[in-house]
Write a structure and sequence with these properties.
Layout: H1 2-8, E1 16-19, H2 24-34, E2 39-41, H3 46-54, E3 60-64, H4 65-76, E4 85-88, H5 99-109, E5 114-117, H6 130-136, H7 144-151, E6 152-157, E7 160-166, H8 171-181, H9 187-190, H10 208-220, E8 222-223, E9 226-227, H11 231-243, H12 255-266, H13 279-288, H14 301-308
């Protein structure tokens, strides 16, 4: 999806890409490869971000959903709006009433072209596409319940209304609606050179706290004031800082763990294996991911077999 849209828009400036926070640097890397226009990642403190907005004329912006929600008033003040809006992982808009979704919809209202992107437009139910349609055609899709009552059976349950399956008499109309407003392509048809298995490196920006801890180890050979005895231990400590500062008793959200949780939230129907040489990080993730199983060397034979099964 990313190479396709960046190539299609390579002659446009003054656009905005909204994506999950952990994918900002990845979008920048892809833009450098596929697009011919400069892209700027919006990051840093509120003051730093305000200065970036002042320099955005004739440049394309990459911003996270969270930052967009926080800075929506500043963004709406930018001159002339945007030439295009790309909403990555657009199925997030299924919860169209959230502040995050409302911020995206507001940006859509000042954008000349709108491109929602997702591999899973409907996560839980076909009606999930309403949020995406509302972004693309806000004047047409004004009422969620009008939309679902037209296309889906409504069941009055004990706890209120429940949306059932698609109405037979509306199925062709619904499918035509999707085909009219969406473009679906298989990767093998667009990028025949890509192998069946893709190895993808995603760069994730460390926090200022991680940076400070990393520099302390490199420059002073200490961590939290404690001396590190040798080079092998120093390398291990550097890796631990990059994976999760919790190793050092610091209650600080690791961007890597944040990315994993965000990815699982965006792709709830995928089966995922998370591997790490750091058992502590896996134990923490296991506690944060509902219904996950864990397999480590610390477990008994019976516990390992249970996880494998």
């Amino acid at each position: 999806k990313t190479p396709t849209i960046l190539t299609a828009l390579k002659n446009y400036v003054g656009g905005i890409v909204v994506c999950p926070s952990s994918l900002k640097l990845n979008w920048l890397k892809e833009a450098e490869k596929w697009a011919k226009q400069p892209y700027v990642v919006i990051t840093g403190s509120k003051t730093k971000r305000k200065k970036l907005y002042e320099t955005m004329n004739r440049r394309n912006m990459i911003i996270s959903y969270e930052t967009l929600r926080a800075d929506i008033n500043d963004i709406l003040k930018l001159n002339n709006g945007f030439t295009f809006l790309i909403a990555d992982e657009a199925h997030r808009l299924r919860n169209y009433k959230t502040k995050q979704s409302k911020a995206v919809l507001k940006v859509g209202s000042i954008s000349e072209r709108i491109y929602p992107m997702t591999g899973t437009p409907a996560v839980n139910h076909a009606a999930d596409v309403f949020g995406i349609l509302k972004l693309m055609l806000p004047s047409k899709y004004t009422s969620y319940w009008n939309f679902v009552e037209r296309y889906f059976a409504i069941i009055d349950g004990h706890f209120g209304k429940k949306i059932g399956g698609i109405k037979k008499e509306r199925e062709a109309e619904f499918n035509n609606l999707l085909y009219t407003h969406s473009l679906q392509r298989k990767r093998r048809d667009v990028m025949a050179w890509v192998p069946k298995v893709t190895h993808r490196v995603i760069d994730i920006e460390p926090t200022s706290k991680q940076n400070a801890m990393f520099k302390e180890i490199v420059r002073r050979g200490t961590i939290n004031g404690e001396e590190i005895p040798n080079a092998i231990t120093k390398l291990t400590r550097l890796r631990q800082v990059c994976v999760d500062p919790m190793y050092f008793g610091i209650n600080h959200q690791s961007p890597k763990i944040g990315f994993i949780l965000e990815y699982l939230e965006d792709n709830p129907n995928e089966t995922v294996i998370i591997f790490s040489t750091m058992t502590g990080a896996l134990i923490r993730l296991h506690a944060l991911i509902p219904d996950a199983v864990i397999l480590t060397g610390r477990q008994t034979t019976e516990q390992k077999q249970f996880a494998v099964d």
